[in-house]
Amino acid sequence: MPTTIFLTRHGKTAANLENRFAGRTSEPLHQQGCAQIAAVADRLKKLQPSAVYAGPLTRTSQSAEIISKVTGARLHTSEPFNEIIIPHWDGLTKEEITAQFGAEYPTWLNAPDQFNLPGCETLAQVQDRAAAEIERIFAEWSGETVVVVSHLIVVRCLVLYYRRQPVSDFRSIKIDNGSIARLRRNGEGRTEVRLDL
């Protein structure tokens, strides 16, 4: 039997609605986000997941708790699915980041694979830690279905990794709040990626 991992982005937060970089703040779900994830949970319930993994931040843990409650899947917290580390941007709007930190944000927008600042993570580092955890889950839950709840940046990096696309294609991957991407691994070790679920 194939092993299936559903990658889910957390529900909407106030920061998403205000165009802020939530980063590693304790940003909770907005009421719209709670409704989004409740709908996601109803869809996933039919697929009978065995486990739900989530990054440790409030918005991902809340989303995962809703999914776990509806599906009955056991909940696990996983640090490798945490948001990217860019601490001096946390809580700022995109305009504030640009005003305070000059060329950093244009680089992030136009050449994200080249974004590399002291005390921050690169996309390659995020991808490495998240993909290693996905591989561990594939091994541990062979033949079963698992849900992973994480962040836009993490999910994009994982999709690129399993599509074997370069990190420079980061902006080409569209992942909305509450969206679901599927990773399915067959018995030959091949991983199929599907976004339009």
Structure notes:
With 197 residues, this protein is α/β, with parallel strands linked by helices. The chain has a single domain (3-194), classed as 3-Layer(aba) Sandwich (Rossmann fold), CATH 3.40.50.1240. The protein has 7 helices and 6 strands; from the N terminus they run E-H-H-E-H-E-H-H-H-E-H-E-E. It has helices at 14-18, 31-45, 58-71, 94-101, 104-110, 123-140, 152-163; strands spanning 3-9, 51-54, 74-77, 145-150, 180-185, 191-194. The protein has a 6-stranded mixed beta sheet, with helices on both faces. Helix 3 (58-71) links the parallel strand 2 and strand 3 (74-77). Helix 2 runs parallel beside helix 3 (58-71) and helix 6 (123-140) crosses helix 7. The two termini are 20 Å apart. The mean pLDDT is 96.
- The amount of helix comes to 40-55%
Mean pLDDT: 96
CATH class group:
Alpha Beta
Count of runs of 4 or more consecutive helical residues: 7
Instruction: Give the amount of beta strand, in percent.
Output: 15-25%
Outline = globular
Low-confidence stretches: none
Radius of gyration: 16 Å
**What's the story with the biggest beta sheet?**
6 strands, mixed
Oligomer: single chain
Helix-strand sequence: EHHEHEHHHEHEE
The CATH architecture can be named as 3-Layer(aba) Sandwich
State the strand order across the main sheet: 3-2-4-1-5-6
Find the structural class using helix and strand composition: alpha/beta
CATH topology: Rossmann fold
